Amino acid sequence: MQSSMTLELRPSADSGSSDVDAEISDGFSPLDNSHRDVADEGSLLRRAEMYQEYMKQVPIPTNRGSLIPFTSWVGLSISMKQLYGQPLHYLTNVLLQRWDQSRFGTDSEEQSLDSIFHPSKAEATIWLVEEIHRITSSHLHIASLWGSDPMYHSFIDPIFPKIETSS
Fold first, then answer.
1. Cβ atoms of 71 and 114 closer than 8 Å
2. Are the beta carbons of 3 and 26 closer than 8 angstroms?
3. Where are the stretches annotated Disordered (predicted)?
4. Which domains does the chain have, with CATH numbers?
5. Which member of 73, 78, 110, 163 lies 3.0 to 4.6 Å from 96 by CB, making a disulfide possible if both were Cys?
């Protein structure tokens, strides 16, 4: 009796690697990847929970008042991150990108946003949305979004301000 073996090649889950994962199947039982999914999901939940707990601790700047010229919401957010040394929440970054995308095809698409919205008002709007995301977002929701977006890392800011701990 001859046994049939198949080899299934997939790109490695490590995005920075050119390696390939391989699994061998005897052709009789389906490949079971559920153990990987559960482990990955658990890891994603833990990361989302740690991220959300960290973001809750980052204080919203209170000394604001600079008039930041800007042409797009994402552009304004980049300037704010540089000026205040603060990250913006993943959900805020996603929202700002969508606001910019929603302008495509409008009469004001080519118009600089700071000529439509006063820079102070626009900045205050972003900080208000940021406060909502930092305080009230569920790590379960964040993990769910991250799980459906392989590029979610691109919306997480690599800025880590020192958090004052009360002793």
1. yes
2. yes
3. 1-36
4. 40-104+114-155 (1.20.120.690)
5. 73
